From TrEMBL:
Lineage summary: Eukaryota, Metazoa, Chordata, Craniata, Vertebrata
Signal peptide per UniProt: 1-25
GO CC entries: membrane
Protein name per the record: Ig-like domain-containing protein
Subcellular location: Membrane
Pfam families cross-referenced by the UniProt entry: C2-set_3, V-set
Domain of life of the organism encoding this protein: Eukaryota
Length: 342
């Protein structure tokens, strides 16, 4: 049976809620809040518009509207009682956040953030309340900035080639660096390091060692992955800049190669000789085992033969002893009989 003990309480609360709604001018009409499905992209120093709307469309002029970051109390902007509320607003958004009122009567509201900074990058929540009913939606703001054009310079010879350095600063988020030769082919092997300043902007330093004397131009390009914007710079590397090969170095490399071949040959020869000796030793060991087994077999046969001969000799002695004892016994018995008859 269903428990109805809470029914009197609910029956008393329902009129009370309705009375509060009527006194505050609200309604129990339900709605949902919709935000943009894709991230909002804003350029550093520009404006970002964080827009949300109610569904079904209704007048939002008398609603409480709030945009905040990770916590409800970390307000970016608050609209209540048809005016801006600044008590809970984060200090970083004071003077930069404003309400776009153009479509409030149609249920669409937006906050414009001016002078976008790196710290504005991230997730936001827009909150709409009408009376006691409220809903919220999440949206993402992606901040992007294109920094300085890359500077490319030759830093000197390195590892039989020329070391080329590319630097750029003031980018956000972390930029992507790519090196290309004169024909547009990419260099895959190069070093790259990123640093971030107090404002959150990235600087990049990429080093490439060019070993091909005929490469000519090399180009360093820096790309913003959010905006898809790229800046590039090329530099020409003259062939005389490459270190010249020393004849002594060539002779040393040839000698080293010959020495390595000799060492490898000697190692193969020693290994082969060692294998032959191991095989000969194994054959000798098998031959010795065979001889030892033959000797043991022969000794066993001689021992068995000696035991058999000893047994035959013992039986012969027993037989001879028995043959000698029987006539004497007969003679003694005859003498006894003769004595008895006398």
């Amino acid at each position: 049976m269903e428990d109805l003990s809470c029914c009197p309480v609910l029956c008393r609360l329902t009129p009370l809620l309705l009375l509060i709604q009527l006194l505050t001018g609200g309604s129990l009409e339900e709605f949902s809040v919709l935000g943009p499905s894709d991230p909002i992209v804003a350029v550093l120093g520009g404006d970002a518009v964080l827009s949300c709307r109610v569904f079904p469309a209704m007048n939002a002029e008398d609603m409480e509207l709030r945009w905040f970051r990770s916590k409800f109390s970390e307000a970016v902007f608050i609209y209540q009682n048809r005016q801006e509320q600044k008590e809970e607003q984060l200090a970083g958004y004071a003077g930069r956040a404003s309400l776009v009122r153009d479509f409030l009567s149609q249920g669409e509201a937006a906050v414009r953030i001016g002078q976008v900074q790196v710290s504005d990058n991230g997730l936001y929540t827009c909150f709409f309340r009408k009376g006691v009913f409220y809903e919220e939606a999440s949206l993402e703001l992606k901040v992007a900035g294109v920094g300085s054009a890359p500077e490319v310079r030759i830093t000197g010879p390195e590892e039989d080639g020329i070391r080329v350095l590319c630097t750029a600063s003031g980018w956000f988020p972390k930029p992507q660096v790519q090196w290309r030769d004169g024909s547009g082919e990419k260099f895959l092997a190069f070093s790259e390091a990123h640093t971030q300043d107090a404002e959150g902007l990235f600087s990049v330093e990429a080093a490439l060692v060019v070993r091909d004397r005929s490469v000519g131009n090399v180009t360093c390009s820096v790309l913003n992955p959010v905006l898809g914007q790229e800046k590039a710079m090329a530099i020409f590397i003259p062939e005389p800049f490459f270190p010249q090969a020393s004849p002594w170095k060539v002779a040393f490399l040839v000698s080293l190669t010959v020495l390595m071949l000799l060492v490898l040959g000697a190692g193969c020869y020693i290994r082969r000789e060692h294998s032959i000796k191991l095989r000969e030793m194994e054959e000798k060991r098998h031959l010795w085992q065979a001889k030892e087994e033959a000797r043991q077999t022969k000794e066993k046969a001689l021992q068995d033969r000696a035991e058999l001969q000893a047994q035959l000799n013992w039986r012969k002695d027993v037989y001879l002893a028995a043959s000698t004892w029987k006539p004497e016994a007969s003679f003694s018995e005859t003498s006894v009989f003769k004595g008895l008859s006398t």
